[in-house]
Amino acid sequence: MKYERIRKIVLEAIEQAVADGLVHGTSGNIALRDDEEDVVAITPSGISYVGMKPEDIAIVDLNGKWLDGNYKPSSETPMHTAVLRARPDIKATVHTHAMFATIMAMGDNPVLRPITPPQCEFTPVRIVPFTMPGSDEVADKVAEAIGQDGRAVLIKNHGMFTCGKDMKAAMAAATYVEEMAVTTYYAKVAGVYEPMPEEGEAAMKALIAADQAV
Ligand SMILES: [Zn+2]
Prior knowledge:
Blueprint: H1 4-19, E1 29-33, E2 39-42, E3 58-61, E4 66-68, H2 77-86, E5 92-96, H3 99-104, E6 126-128, H4 136-146, E7 152-155, E8 159-164, H5 167-190, H6 198-213
Parallel strand pairs: 6-7
Antiparallel strand pairs: 1-2, 1-5, 2-3, 3-4, 5-8, 7-8
Helix pairs in contact: 2-4
Zinc ion binds next to loops.
């Protein structure tokens, strides 16, 4: 099988996302760029992730053209490839409809701020207005909101999108963004919402960046 390594990593990641409750049914999709060739392994469209095999993971080029795989690539491929084209430092991308991230993207002025230190690695979490799923418009808006430094965005009435230098980093972003949304939601319900002070957040970001540079 071609591109077996990246297909297996994508399959393991989507199984983990299902086990962690970040993905339900066939919603959510995960992509990984090959280290040497400009190809991307991505979860297929509309197929249950239960019992999925590596050869079921689709292979596309950086423009989303379907090259290989038993099933056609995710309908949300444009969002993944737009970010991968714009950010050579990014290898892995994750999109989920995780419940609390979706809730926290609503309202007139949604802001997701870190509650605990590890969450600072993934802020600021910018907000993307609603646009049709699978469209080039949503892909462009997600890539624009991620920018040259972003790790995560929320998409209104849809979900979240995260990325990283490898699959572990992209999955950590998805996990911590959902944790940030869960803790924010419950803190607001309990009337004790108090995100980390901005100076603390900046200091943590500097510490994490220095640690990752080693
Ligand atoms: Zn979606």
